[in-house]
Amino acid sequence: MNNFTLNTPDYNIKQMVDVYEPSEDTFLFIDALEADLAFIQARKPTYMLEIGSGSGVITTALGSHLSLTCFTTDINIKACNATRDTGLLNKVQVEPVCMDLASHFRPFLFDILIFNPPYVVTDSEEIIGTGLSRAWAGGIDGREIIDKLLPQVKNILSESGIFYLLLLKENKPDEVAAILEKFGFQHKIIKEKKILGEYLYIVRFIKKQTSKP
Ligand SMILES: C[S@@+](CC[C@H](N)C(=O)[O-])C[C@H]1O[C@@H](n2cnc3c(N)ncnc32)[C@H](O)[C@@H]1O
Questions:
Q1: Which atom of ligand 1 is the closest one to the Cα of 19?
Q2: CA distance 66 to 88
């Protein structure tokens, strides 16, 4: 296998009822990770966590390429089952856990954190239940779920950890970067693309290096 190619794993969409089907945003995320593989490998990651794994194709793509211990979470139990099945289909061991964001993992530290969040601008009331609508309903500015995670990132990422986040233009990526900067992170846009009328960014965050006295 080419050392810098991430293949889209096999997945069985017929078995994924009420689970977010891998879409253009999913594939853009895989492309971004592929573009950043050299950076990822240089940091020698061991533990990864994908929040909101849906079908599990992003974690499986990375887990089949790198030697990682892969954890995922999703608020939708059917997505957790789908993630497990996609892992098994591709012979990648993935440990899915049904939970809100990464709430029960603290204080565990991950080297890679991935989130393709529910980013669509909706009424706050649309963020309800644990079913398929949770895949896209993002509330005000599409930011309500994203903003819940931001203060947690520094507590679940290792010192050399990398956080990849997908954002829509309407999510105000500059504001998200400014919030994470206050928590000690610097950012870089790895990919951006207009897809079906949505302008999407995949942003990489790492902890700012403090110079030693
Ligand atoms: C846009 S979909 C992305 C799915 C998959 N990662 C992909 O890229 O195809 C967002 C996913 O996040 C999950 N989700 C939404 N809110 C969540 C929360 N608070 N905690 C965990 N998962 C959540 C949804 O159930 C859904 O599977």
A1: 27
A2: 16
